[in-house]
From TrEMBL:
Keywords: Cell inner membrane, Cell membrane, Cell shape, Cell wall biogenesis/degradation, Glycosyltransferase, Membrane, Peptidoglycan synthesis, Transferase, Transmembrane, Transmembrane helix. InterPro entries: Glyco_trans_51, Lysozyme-like_dom_sf, PBP_transglycosylase, Pep_trsgly. Belongs to the glycosyltransferase 51 family. The chain crosses the membrane at residues 26-44. GO terms for molecular function: glycosyltransferase activity. This is Biosynthetic peptidoglycan transglycosylase. The gene is mtgA. Residues 60-219 form the Glycosyl transferase family domain. Peptidoglycan polymerase that catalyzes glycan chain elongation from lipid-linked precursors. Pathway: Cell wall biogenesis; peptidoglycan biosynthesis. The keyword Cell membrane applies. Its EC number is 2.4.99.28. It holds the Pfam family Transgly.
Amino acid sequence: MSLRLPANVANAFADRKSLMRRIGQFVLVIIAIPLVLTPIYWIVPPISTLMIWSALTFQGMERDWVGLDDVAPVMVNSVIMSEDGQFCEHSGVDWNALGIVLDREGGPSRGASTIPMQTVKNLFLWQSRSYVRKGLEIPLAYYADFILSKRRIMTIYLNIAQWGPGLFGVEAASQHYFNKPASKLTARQAALLTAALPNPIVRNPAKPSRAMQAKARIIEGRARAAGDYVGCI
């Protein structure tokens, strides 16, 4: 004798199975997007999720893509020495720095992120801090570092980083704050732009606070001593 489930129970199971199938398909699509797009970004200038959101919410989206040859070397040095001193040494994730920051209270912070991690976060993920987002950043950062060169990762990062409401990329930021191309930035201006990165909505490189000026002086000194730390660029 075969047992039949009541129609309402059978329908409930069918609906649940259908829902799980749709969730699985959605997850696969989310995973596939960075896997497919990252190699394309060797050639195609990408836009970030934050840039898309800024445009959709009418905050504006100003960005002028430039190659790394059109960015002052001191700007590159400033970013590496401030954001990710081991950029040329690791393969996408700096586990020593990550372990130190994850041990702190309050969840993972920007200090736990390498430049590849910040790049994939800006390209594919969301901005709010969470262990879930950090867990996604790690494999994506390894993948990006494997597929792309260090120079290309830095080029992408500098062109998608936010420097103000609706303001993205180092060229647009340099023109907006200092009325000059990124290729002409001075060491001080590069340090001020870098000092603004952790909180670009409230930090103005053209009108820095005392705390921001102090941080910029530290960054400027580190950039001068960059040496082999930036050899991969």
